[in-house]
Amino acid sequence: MYSLLTMRLFREGCGEMVDSFKHRMGAALMSSPARVSGKVSFGEFELNLETAELRRNGHESILPGQPFQILATLLDRPGQLVTREELKKQLWPSDTFVDFDVSLNKAVNRLREALGDSAEHPLFIETLPRKGYRFVGAIESGSLKMGSPAGAVETALDEHLLPVGSGSDGQTPSQKVIANETPSPIFPSPVRRYVLAVIILLVITIVLVAMAKQFSRFRRPELANVQITKLTDSGRAGTVAISADGRYIAYSLNDGEKESLRLRQIATRSDVEILASGPGFHGLTFSPDGNYVYFIRSDPKDPIFKYLYSVPMLGGPVRKLISDVDSPVSFSPDGRQFAFERGVAKRNIVELRVANADGSGDHVLATIQNGDISLFQPGLNWSQDGRTIVVPLRILDKERRWVLASVSVQGGKVRQIYSGLEAFGRPVWLNEHSILIPHYDSEYERSQLWMVSYPAGIARRFTNDLADYDQSLDISRDASTVAAIASTVTSNIWVAPTETLLSGRQITSGELPMIDITETSDGKLLSTGGDGRLWIMNSDGSHREPFSDARGVGWLTPCGRFVLFASFAADAVTITRADADGSHAIKLISGDVRHPACTPDGRFVFYVNGHRPQKVWRVPSDGGSPVEIADGVGDGITGPLDISPDGRLFSYPFDEYPPVWKIAVSSASGGQLIKIFDVPGGTTRVRWSTTGTGVQYLVTQNGATNIWEQSLAGGNPKQLTKFTSGRIFDFNWSSDHRRLLLTRGDVTSDVVLLSNLR
């Protein structure tokens, strides 16, 4: 008989275990491996096979999905070789596109880290070079050893798969066989073995049929049957929700820096405005009865600070329920409660909170340490059985990563389901064994919808189209229809002479958006693309080519005769200095660092630590030890630092509570705060003027982004550019101060429906 571990993984939705299951079923009748119970003990460890909890000397942790599956597979076949090919097939379906060898090595390394094991001197996991792995530790499951004698195996089979009756002495028949050293067989030995094999085969058949019926209820949707329909065509949809009955969607409509809330009947496509234009929306949810729309909206003065409101579905009085909400809400199945997230900056935590439907009874269910509180959280989702909430988070600990976690409604216990390097969106439950989630795919340079099995945590891409799915996602109650936002970013490089900024012209074109922009010391243009790479080109935009092999690049800035940029990886942000042609790259600092800037002479680099309290640091551009310069001002630094042309001052945007945005100007030598200026909410990318007498920044109003300048002497800010449409993503000045460099374009987004999921 095959192990109960394999059955358990199969029941939990691990379809990729089917091949292994079929292969081993035939051999099960010939040589029965030992039973594996709900908990397996080995060495100082105890592994719970149902929850992936790993306990060691009373300390408990959760094994991530892939390391858990590897350990479970090895425990199922102790002392035997498990090939790399077998593990690849179990961990990744055939339609998954990853670097299997690298990913498998990483998963095994994480497992070894959890066990305190090493490849050189293995206590548990032995590597057989170019072949696979073998579990070499001593295993015990309760009082039952793996590889037990045949009699004990038969007892285990009898107890779990055959009817159990009582003998005259209170023992089960199977116990009596084991207890008697010389039992009297009812049939001769060959006949008895044949009868036992037939009985086991019948039981296996019954179990398989039952499992197949159960599994068919939760089979994954087939993409070929799914219909994708574009529901809006304005190009200005922001966030979306779908009613429980699947008949209506609510969505926000961008109008410059403002947004309105609209309701659309899906069948007729009739569309009405529920709320007029105002501060931005950051998450929508229908109440389970469909009577209300719950929405998150920014404070009019600070787009980062948000409130939870409700409004009748067809419009009416708006009710404010809770302040300081950092995610869309998700309702319990009975509609009596909802869950949401709140980032607590001073404690570096994200709280998962639960409140009654009217906003009362707000309390903490769980706390996640080192969650990235600088983000507006994608959103959580309450399971259909009411027992579990799934939530995506970006974790900023030793290993930076995105995590999809489950939280028990009873007790608030947090467990990692799946993790990845790239961003997640809001998850929805397809059924009790499958979760659909937007997930950025660096290979395809866009976000697609992925399916993650629960609780095993096996991920596979579900969509593979040209759309770029935003974080917003919602699903009807019967899980047949999903509402999503598909978006497209266009951005090109523009230049304008300093004397006449209103006469700018576009110098690049193409599908790849250009985001950050600067000029190198030899007059070439350097830009980060939407693919996360650095691109260098001539001053007129021609002859574009890769600048370096770095990926996930941002925060690009000139640095004397060098250039400075940051690259984002799972474990850290790395600030790198390179020559103007990309050669001689030097990694200056790596860790929880943000918003780098460089002095005009290229001698020093300034940066900010991400965790609270934030501080400004300085490090020599040729390497060395960082020096603390100043404490950050306000609740959080919201954009890159910039150094004045004479190198004496630095500036940055920040926010604070009560909600307000400001720009700070400080001394570059001693860190003393010199000036603070009020600016409109959402101000981004602060640069110094070419003369060093003022600071310039981006503001989006009436659907267009423009550059404004605030004089250090005070007074009202002055608008420098006069664009009437489009967004500016970044701006900079040429090294000779004769040209303004811009990346400028727009973001278009619309609601799409994925139907026939069931």
In short:
The chain is mainly beta. The protein is built from eight helices and 56 strands.
Protein described:
Helix content is 14%, strand content 44%. It is mostly beta strands and 758 residues long. The chain has 3 domains: 4-217, Orthogonal Bundle (Arc Repressor Mutant, subunit A); 235-477, Neuraminidase; 491-749, Neuraminidase. Residues 1-37, 142-189 and 213-218 have low confidence and may be disordered.
Instruction: Please give the CATH class of the largest domain.
Output: Mainly Beta
Helix content: 10-25%
Kindly estimate the percentage of residues that lie in beta strands according to DSSP.
Answer: 35-45%
**How far from one another are the termini?**
34 Å
Shape: globular
Mean pLDDT: 82
Keywords summarizing the entry:
disordered N terminus, Arc Repressor Mutant, subunit A, Neuraminidase, 758 residues, 8 helices, mainly beta, six-stranded antiparallel beta sheet, 3 domains, globular
How would the blueprint of this fold be written?
Blueprint: H1 4-11, H2 18-28, E1 39-42, E2 45-48, E3 53-56, E4 59-62, H3 65-76, E5 82-83, H4 84-91, H5 100-115, E6 125-128, E7 132-135, E8 139-141, E9 144-145, H6 150-161, H7 173-179, H8 189-217, E10 227-230, E11 237-242, E12 248-255, E13 258-265, E14 271-278, E15 281-286, E16 292-299, E17 302-312, E18 319-323, E19 330-331, E20 337-344, E21 349-356, E22 363-369, E23 381-382, E24 388-395, E25 401-408, E26 414-420, E27 428-431, E28 434-441, E29 446-453, E30 459-461, E31 468-475, E32 482-497, E33 505-506, E34 514-519, E35 525-529, E36 534-537, E37 545-546, E38 553-559, E39 562-568, E40 573-579, E41 586-591, E42 593-598, E43 604-609, E44 615-620, E45 627-631, E46 636-637, E47 642-643, E48 649-656, E49 660-667, E50 673-679, E51 684-688, E52 694-701, E53 704-711, E54 718-719, E55 727-733, E56 739-755
Antiparallel strand pairs: 1-2, 1-8, 2-3, 3-4, 5-7, 6-7, 8-9, 10-56, 11-12, 12-13, 13-14, 15-16, 16-17, 17-18, 19-20, 20-21, 21-22, 23-24, 24-25, 25-26, 27-28, 28-29, 29-30, 31-32, 32-33, 32-56, 34-35, 35-36, 36-37, 38-39, 39-40, 40-41, 42-43, 43-44, 44-45, 46-48, 47-48, 48-49, 49-50, 51-52, ...
